UniProtKB/TrEMBL annotation:
Alphabetized UniProt keyword annotations: Dioxygenase, Iron, Metal-binding, Oxidoreductase
Molecular functions (GO terms): gibberellin 2-beta-dioxygenase activity; metal ion binding
Gene3D superfamilies, per database record: B-lactam Antibiotic, Isopenicillin N Synthase, Chain
GO biological process, one term: gibberellin metabolic process
Catalytic reaction annotation: gibberellin A1 + 2-oxoglutarate + O2 = gibberellin A8 + succinate + CO2
This protein's name: gibberellin 2beta-dioxygenase
Group of enzyme by EC: oxidoreductase
Residues spanning the membrane: none
UniProt EC number: 1.14.11.13
Organism: Nyssa sinensis
Fe2OG dioxygenase domain sequence ranges: 188-289
Family assignment from sequence similarity: Belongs to the iron/ascorbate-dependent oxidoreductase family. GA2OX subfamily.
Pfam families in alphabetical order: 2OG-FeII_Oxy, DIOX_N
Length: 336
């Protein structure tokens, strides 16, 4: 019989044997309500005259304040291109496990392939997923990723997504009455990342997350998910299951934007649940600054102290290693 790929139950056998997860963590006790759609914004309205443009911008800012998530259509990347890229992504994940874990086989940058949660001390901390996490500028260095890009001829969808992130960041800054070159100067292609995700079928889907509850440590994340679904987020104290929309890209606010906006835009906790029968694929673009970029509020008085992205990442990694989960922005409150 062919071994599971990746070998979660073998590698994390001690976690499965301990049976210490009879009481779910606090976050998972939140009530899951029925599936719903995120606020849907048609970006073509930005080109339909001043009134339509300003209303579209207002909706983007409103969703970022009230949901921390929204979805966009007419974003510049056709469904055909997204489907082609997904097919190439699936091919990469279907490579044998020993090839995925050895950078030389796929010519990926060192450390690109990740799976599971090495720091997990209990099942609720284990993410039943595998990813390729690659800087955008390294896309041309791998034959596999170059193939993925070349399948999307007529448009380089990744660079369109990069431009989309810049545009959204500028709109959100503008609605804070803070027009700035900050994002163009600090969030460049060589500081942003693409993460391709696969969530294999999970025989104990009620006990293990595909991706445990977290917030994103960037400014913005742009996500394309398949029709399977599984993304959930916290809204009004409840877990909301996000209804898949194949025409849309999902946008969510990250921790850095919450700090930069002084808490106006919300970095919302979200998770991915597992599925017992079918696998799920998604791809996420992370809009990040350089590690030396200093994050400080665009208004005063600030509820967060200034910090560099390097300092933030280091603190997150230390907390995950020590506690098994991320603390994030509360570590950087001025009152601490």
């Amino acid at each position: 019989m062919e071994l599971p790929d990746p070998p979660f139950q073998e590698t994390y056998k001690i976690l499965f044997d301990q049976n210490i997860d009879a009481t779910p963590n606090r976050d998972n006790d939140l009530v899951i309500v029925e599936e719903c759609e995120l606020p849907l914004i048609d970006l073509s309205r930005l080109n339909r005259g001043e009134l339509e443009r300003e209303e579209c911008k207002r909706e983007i800012a409103k969703a970022s304040q009230e949901w921390g998530f929204f979805q966009v259509v007419n974003h510049g990347v056709s469904r055909e291109i997204l489907e082609r890229m997904r097919r190439e992504q699936v091919k990469v994940f279907k490579k044998p496990f020993h090839e995925k874990t050895n950078d030389k086989y796929l010519n990926f940058p060192a450390g690109s392939y990740r799976w599971g949660t090495p720091s997990a001390t209990r099942l609720r901390q284990l993410s039943w997923s595998e990813t390729f996490h690659v800087p955008l500028t390294d896309m041309s260095g791998s034959a596999a990723l170059t193939s993925l890009r070349n399948r999307a001829r007529h448009q380089d969808s990744l660079w369109i997504v990069s431009e989309l992130a810049q545009m959204l960041a500028e709109i959100l800054a503008e609605k804070m009455e803070h027009k700035s070159t900050f994002f163009k100067e600090n969030c460049l292609p060589n500081t942003c990342y693409l993460r391709m995700n696969r969530y294999p079928p999970c025989p104990i889907s009620s006990e293990v997350f595909g991706l445990m509850p977290h917030t994103d440590s960037d400014f913005l994340t742009i996500l394309h998910q398949d029709q399977i679904g599984g993304l959930q987020l916290v809204k009004d104290g409840k877990w909301i299951a996000v209804k898949p929309n194949q025409e849309a890209l999902i946008i969510n606010i990250g921790d850095l934007f919450q700090a930069w906006s002084n808490g106006v835009y919300k970095s919302v906790e979200h998770q991915v649940v597992t599925n017992k029968q079918v696998e799920r694929f998604s791809a996420a673009y992370f809009f990040c600054p350089s590690y030396d970029t200093v994050i400080q509020s665009c208004v005063e008085p600030s509820i967060y102290r200034s910090f560099s992205f390097r300092e933030y990442r280091k603190q997150v990694q230390e907390d995950v290693k020590k506690l098994g989960h991320k603390i994030g922005l509360p570590r950087f409150l001025v009152c601490n």
